[in-house]
């Protein structure tokens, strides 16, 4: 067996109000795993993320390497996981490393705008690197990659938006 991943979400804000309340009610995880080499080295951010977990759900911040190691470890089969990455590159690294998201696809919540980025939706902006990683996930890995802030919103396929913006 492998870990039960209920939602794989890319969100530059990581664990915030919408994730802690609305998404956890929808996917009923018992564990939130924030996977980021950068955040795992930042004790302040790690502390804030673990404190933001809703009641009854434990949050951990781990590296990509650690996630790949525990994914198939039977000791973690009890995890009903809400998986969060800060960017598409980290999610792509997980998929390349063997994390199977074919049954659930990937949810993109929010990617903050910075100068030089293309705006795909009101909540998602990408540069060339982010676009390349999203295209890998949707095309090369064959995963359903959709933008959706909250469960009640319509899912928007990311590929046509990348094509429209010539990314």
TrEMBL record:
One of its GO terms (biological process) is phosphoenolpyruvate-dependent sugar phosphotransferase system. CDD domains: PTS_IIB_man. GO terms for cellular component: cytoplasm. It is found in: Cytoplasm. Transmembrane segments: none annotated. Keywords: Cytoplasm, Kinase, Phosphotransferase system, Sugar transport, Transferase, Transport. It holds the Pfam family PTSIIB_sorb. Gene3D superfamilies: Phosphotransferase system, sorbose subfamily IIB component (3.40.35.10). GO terms for molecular function: kinase activity; protein-N(PI)-phosphohistidine-sugar phosphotransferase activity. InterPro entries: PTS_IIB_sorbose-sp, PTS_IIB_sorbose-sp_sf. Its main location: cytoplasm. Residues 1-167 form the PTS EIIB type-4 domain. This is PTS fructose transporter subunit IIB. It comes from Secundilactobacillus folii.
């Amino acid at each position: 067996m492998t870990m039960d991943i209920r939602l794989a979400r890319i969100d530059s804000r990581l664990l915030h109000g919408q994730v802690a309340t609305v998404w956890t009610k929808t996917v009923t995880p018992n564990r939130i795993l924030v996977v980021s080499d950068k955040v795992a080295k930042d004790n302040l951010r790690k502390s804030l993320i673990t404190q933001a977990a809703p009641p009854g759900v434990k949050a951990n911040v781990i590296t990509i390497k650690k996630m790949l190691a525990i994914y198939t470890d039977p000791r973690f089969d009890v995890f009903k996981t809400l998986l969060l990455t800060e960017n598409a590159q980290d999610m792509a690294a997980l998929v390349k490393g063997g994390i199977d998201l074919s049954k659930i696809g990937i949810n993109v919540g929010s990617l903050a705008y910075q100068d030089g980025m293309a705006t795909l939706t009101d909540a998602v902006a990408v540069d060339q690197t982010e676009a390349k990683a999203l295209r890998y996930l949707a095309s090369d890995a064959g995963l359903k990659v959709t933008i959706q802030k909250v469960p009640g919103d319509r899912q928007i396929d990311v590929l046509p938006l990348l094509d429209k913006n010539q990314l």
